[in-house]
Amino acid sequence: MKSKVNEIAISYSGSLKANSLPKITCSQSAADLAYSQWNKETIELQETFKIMLLNNANKVKGICEVSNGGITGTLVDVRILFAVLLKSLTTAVILLHNHPSGTLKPSEADKTLTQKIKNAGELLDIKVLDHLILTPDGDYYSFADNGIL
């Protein structure tokens, strides 16, 4: 009896030209772009974790939602996060999530997850440039600016 397996196809489709992609120059430009793309109807209701995919020139290839959770947290599967990064041939990433409560202080879970992703990224030559926490009113906290990345 002959065994059969599924064929796996991996693809990335981008319609914007590289010269028209927004360039990230600092945490403020990343936070502004992320906030402009966030669903304002849910930002104060539930926590969501996204990743901003960057090319080698720090131009944004896209933003991908990795996890959508509850009022006080969301579960991020690091394997799914890296599947997206590898599939899109991303060289750098900015981690993004919101705090519906409006607090800008990162939790211990936020810090642990960031370190886990950073360590995995080093193995795969994918730079974690920052982790931003956004609030419903548009404020943000940058792990890189605060020296905890």
From TrEMBL:
<dbReference type="GO" id="GO:0008237">
    <property type="term" value="F:metallopeptidase activity"/>
</dbReference>
<protein>
    <submittedName>
        <fullName>DNA repair protein</fullName>
    </submittedName>
</protein>
<dbReference type="InterPro" id="IPR020891">
    <property type="entry name" value="UPF0758_CS"/>
</dbReference>
<keyword id="KW-0479">Metal-binding</keyword>
<dbReference type="InterPro" id="IPR037518">
    <property type="entry name" value="MPN"/>
</dbReference>
<keyword id="KW-0645">Protease</keyword>
<dbReference type="GO" id="GO:0046872">
    <property type="term" value="F:metal ion binding"/>
</dbReference>
<keyword id="KW-0378">Hydrolase</keyword>
<dbReference type="GO" id="GO:0006508">
    <property type="term" value="P:proteolysis"/>
</dbReference>
<keyword id="KW-0862">Zinc</keyword>
<dbReference type="InterPro" id="IPR025657">
    <property type="entry name" value="RadC_JAB"/>
</dbReference>
<dbReference type="Pfam" id="PF04002">
    <property type="entry name" value="RadC"/>
</dbReference>
<keyword id="KW-0482">Metalloprotease</keyword>
<feature type="domain" description="MPN">
    <location>
        <begin position="24"/>
        <end position="149"/>
    </location>
</feature>
<dbReference type="InterPro" id="IPR001405">
    <property type="entry name" value="UPF0758"/>
</dbReference>
